[in-house]
C-alpha cells in the first residue's frame, strides 16, 4: 500500500513533465489535505509566473494529463487542483495494508548503523526532570530506527568521571560502603553529593583527602577503582529502577560514560596537535573550527586540553566521535541533548570534520531538547527552588492516574498495573507530542486528562476498540473480512490510515516524534467519529457490514498500538 499523498505527488509530477517538459518533473506539486476534496495541489499558482501563463490555464493543462488518476480532478478558483480519490482505490489499499504485518512501514535499504546518545544522567547526582525529555525522545527514536531495520547502538553517556568523584569516594569511606550503597540505591544521590560537598567546602582535611583521591582515581589505583565501582554500581541500579518505571529500553550494556573515554583523551590531544588541527593558545590546546567567532569577533576556541592540563567535555566528545565513527561504524550519530549545548555540538562537529574524524559518509546531528517549564513559565523546579527528582515526578503521575480510574471496579493488582501504564503514558506522551526543540509547560492536570491530545486519551482509543471486539466475541486477529468504506466516517478513517507507513519513515529520518503523535491523535479523533456514526456490533447491524467494520477497527487498532509502541507509550486493553 502507498501513502496517497506520495501517489498523488508522483502522478502530478509526471503530468507536469508531460505538459510542460521534463525540466518540471521534480517540481513540488504542493499537495495538501483539503476541506473541498481529499487533497489539493497548488503547484499551478507557483509555476504560472515561470511559464508566463495564468494559474488556471496551468492547472487545466495539468488536469488534462492526469487521465489515469484514480479519482476525480477539479480545477477550482484561480488555479487550485482539487483531487478526490475513488473509494475503490482507497479500499484496495486499506485491504493491502490490513494484510501486511508491517502496516506499510518499509525498511531501510541498505540498513544503517544509528548511534543514539541519550539520557546521560550525572552519576554524582540523582536523575531529575531535566533528564526526562532526553531519555524519552532518545528512546522513541531508537525504537523507530530498529523498527525500520536499522542497527541501533544506544549510548548512555553517563557523567561518571572527574574531580567530584574524589570527594564522593571519600564520603563513601566516611559513612561506610554499606550505608553508601543503601543511600544511593534508594535514590538519594543528590543528598549524598550535598553531604560530600559540604565537607569538601568546610573541612580542609577532607578537601586534601578528596583531591588526593582524584589523583589515585585517575592513575588507576586498584583500591580507588574498586570504591568507584561500588559507588557506580549502586547508582546505576537506581537509574535502572527509573528506566524500568519509564519503560525505556536502556540497559547496562548501553552505558558508555565519560570513564570509558578517559584512556583515549591523551591520544585525542596528541593526534589533534600532531595533525596541526589543534594549537596551543594561552597555554591551552585548542581547535579553532572555521566560522565560529566570539562577541569580540575573534575566532572562538574549542578547548581540548585546559591550561592546567585537565580535560573537559570537548575532549571527551571528540574522542567519542572518533570512536563512534571508527569503531562502531556509525552512519548517523544522534545526540539527544539540551538546546543549551547547541553551540558546543556545532563546534565539536566542525572540529571533527576539520580533523577528518567525521567523514561525509557519517552524519552527526544534535537533536535539540527544549526546556521543561512550570506553570509560571520558568524552569520546572520544586517550591524550594531545587530540581524535581525524576522518580518523585513519575510516582506522582502514577498516583494521579490511580485516582482517575479508582471507581472502575478493578481488583487491586489490576488497578496498580493500569495506574502505572496511564501515569507513564501521560508523562511520556505529553513530552513527545511537543516538538522536541520547543519548551513546554509541565501540567499534570492536562497530562492525565481523558480528552484532548493526551496519553490517556490515546490509551482510551485502543481500549474502546478492544471493548468492541469483546462485545463481538472475536479477536482482532480474526477480523479478516474485506474492508469496505461506504460511510463518510469510514472513508475518512481508512484514507487517513494509509499515510502511516510513510510517516514512520519520515519521523525517523527527521527525528520528529511529535509528528507521529499528531498522526495518532488524528487517528483517534477519526475513530471517535466513526464510532458515533457507524455502529459495529449494535443490534440490527447487517452481519456483512458488521464484519467489514470490525476489519476496519482491527486495522485502526494495529496502527494505534504500533505507533504508540514506537513512541514507547504503553497500551491497554482495559482502563
Average per-residue pLDDT, rounded, comes to 94
Spatial shape: globular
- Relative helix content: 40-55%
Residue windows where pLDDT falls under 50 for at least 5 positions: none
Q: What about the largest sheet?
A: 4 strands, antiparallel
Through-space gap between termini = 33 Å
**Which strand order does the major sheet show?**
1-2-4-3
Number of strands: 13
- Class from helix and strand fractions: alpha/beta
Total helical segments: 22
GO molecular function: ligase activity
Family: Belongs to the class-I aminoacyl-tRNA synthetase family.
EC number: 6.1.1.19
Catalytic activity: tRNA(Arg) + L-arginine + ATP = L-arginyl-tRNA(Arg) + AMP + diphosphate
Question: Which helices and strands occur, and which strands form pairs?
Answer:
Layout: H1 4-20, E1 31-33, E2 39-41, H2 43-51, H3 55-64, E3 71-76, E4 80-85, H4 87-99, E5 113-117, H5 132-147, E6 151-155, H6 164-175, H7 177-185, H8 189-202, H9 204-218, H10 222-246, H11 258-261, H12 265-274, E7 278-281, E8 284-287, E9 302-305, H13 313-326, E10 332-338, H14 342-355, E11 363-369, E12 372-373, H15 390-404, H16 412-432, E13 440-441, H17 444-447, H18 455-472, H19 488-497, H20 500-510, H21 513-533, H22 543-567
Helix pairs in contact: 1-3, 2-3, 4-19, 6-7, 6-8, 6-9, 6-10, 7-10, 8-9, 13-14, 15-16, 18-21, 18-22, 19-21, 19-22, 20-21, 21-22
